[in-house]
What does this fold into?
Amino acid sequence: MARDSAPAPAVAALAMAVSIALLLLPLPAKQAVASIIGPVLFFPAARATAFIESILTLRAENRALRFGLTQCVLDDAKVFALAEQNQRLHSMIGMRASLPYWLIPGMVLSRPGRFAGEYLAVDTGAADGVQAGFGVVSIGGLVGRVVEVRPHHSLVRTLLSPESRVSVVAKRSGAGGILRAERTVGFTVPDIPMTEDVAPGDTLVTSGLGGVFPPGLRVGVVSAVSDDHRLQLHRAAVTSLVRFHAIREVFILGSAPSDTSWSLDADHLR
It folds into this structure.
């Protein structure tokens, strides 16, 4: 242990002697010694400082690059969304041209209610000519009808609601009935007479009865048919052509096609 601590006084004495010698040197000699010793003593500190500065610079550059990449991702998402919306709107414009009715375009703002998709809040209202009872369609087909109107907003009850009823016919055979929705079952037409011809794959369209919806609007496709021999009725399970949980744009039918339909059907088309 004494052997380990012996050099300490010698080192201290040497350092003291060097310090005194440097103090006694003339100024030119001191400057010469400093020019030689200074870089050696301060080089590690200078390297450390330069290293830290380079790290800070790289972090700032990486932050800027990440920000730029994030902006690019957001811009790409915006372009994709605009392109997708443009395609949907072109399809809707084509649908609008094919229907001889006054159509009011609207954007879906929200899907209020306990069961998503049964109601849609739309950004058009009385100021745009919307009235309660007007039908609502999308590029997929029939959506529902307006049940409440405010100056600049409307509430649409979709076909998903168990309260909705629509008179439909099979496009192929003309077999008809009332389409309704059941939350645990889906869409059904339970009252087609067994004397009528309906089969899986048949496309169902609106009949036009009641004056609420124009005839020929696509509603769904028959997925299965079962028979109730006691009541002599077909029961058709139906797959909708509208993605109710993904609708973003709709058209509100600005007027009923005619006033010649039977008032009796109005009760069924609530």
About this structure: The first strand starts at residue 103 and ends at 110.
